[in-house]
Write a structure and sequence with these properties.
mainly alpha; two-stranded antiparallel sheet; 2 strands; 1% strand
């Protein structure tokens, strides 16, 4: 669907009393093909067809894993990072690569660095280079890191061992993190942390059967949807889709918002600069597949 035909369809729908705004998938695919690197194009292929990439693509990611099991925050670093490890698990997920010994090691490392109260924080050695959302000792960063690590521990463990009940290995870790997160929620469903903590927390809480608390967080996210950046909307929708929340009102609203913010070249703006626009576009495709 071209931009002109999409706008014509939208105008016709508005005249008929209904609004049908859809993401131009073909244009998004074209943008990734034109601007993506080999790993990003391999992610596109898997998201479109389920085709696994050449082993060298997975090896490129795995090769930077530390001996401890986590991934470092930078290519020059050797201290594993919670945030970087979750990013790599996300990347492997887009390639159908959440299996095998490297992922098992990553999950074991995440579980090993969980704090006694159920939270996750970055290593103090990373404080000098850590962004706000990963600053060791910061309460807002702790909530975000806990939601993020708990979410990916849930998703990757289910993918890695689908025949096992998740609690068989990491039930205590996930239960303690979910309980801690529930206790951080305010009476109105908001949370004292970054916006992205909300959708990861909603996914973790849903997976741990805190359905009421997850729904409260989702209501807050729905209220904030109109003010979210395209990158945030994409991340939220992809995260909630990943834990099989279904095609509910929030995901439908998110897709509509993504259609409204798609650029004429088929891509979406990243919150971190043009270099990450392809990643944001891939996240939209993951949310809409």
């Amino acid at each position: 669907m071209t931009k002109d035909s999409r706008e014509t369809a939208q105008r016709n729908a508005e005249r008929n009393g209904s609004v049908t705004v859809v993401v131009d998938i073909d244009a998004a695919i074209g943008y990734v093909v034109a601007h993506g690197d080999p790993v990003e194009r391999a992610r596109l292929s898997y998201l479109r067809t389920g085709q696994r990439p050449d082993p060298e693509i997975i090896e490129r990611i795995v090769s930077t894993q530390t001996e401890f099991g986590g991934w470092p925050a930078s290519t020059e670093g050797d201290t594993p990072s919670v945030d970087a490890t979750c990013f790599r698990l996300n990347e492997l997920d887009d390639l159908g690569g959440l299996d095998g010994e490297p992922v098992d090691r990553a999950l074991a490392w995440l579980a090993s660095v969980q704090r006694p109260d159920g939270t996750w924080q970055e290593d103090e050695a990373l404080a000098a280079e850590a962004p706000d959302w990963a600053m060791p000792g910061d309460p807002e960063a702790t909530l975000y890191q806990t939601a993020l690590a708990g979410f990916w521990l849930t998703v990757a463990e289910v993918e890695l061992h689908p025949h096992l009940d998740v609690p068989a290995r990491y039930g205590q870790a996930l239960g303690s993190s979910a309980t801690w997160l529930v206790n951080q929620l305010r009476p109105d469903g908001t949370w004292p942390s970054f916006l992205a903590a909300g959708w990861h927390a909603a996914g973790l809480l849903y997976g741990q059967q805190y359905f009421y608390e997850s729904a409260r967080v989702q209501l807050v996210l729905g209220d904030r949807l109109s003010d979210m950046s395209p990158a945030d909307v994409a991340s939220m929708a992809a995260t909630l889709r990943r834990v099989n929340l279904g095609d509910d009102w929030l995901l439908q609203s998110a897709r509509k918002r993504l259609a409204e913010t798609q650029r004429s070249d088929g891509g979406w703006d990243s919150a971190e600069g043009p270099i990450f626009d392809v990643h944001t576009t891939l996240t939209v495709l993951r949310a809409c597949r």
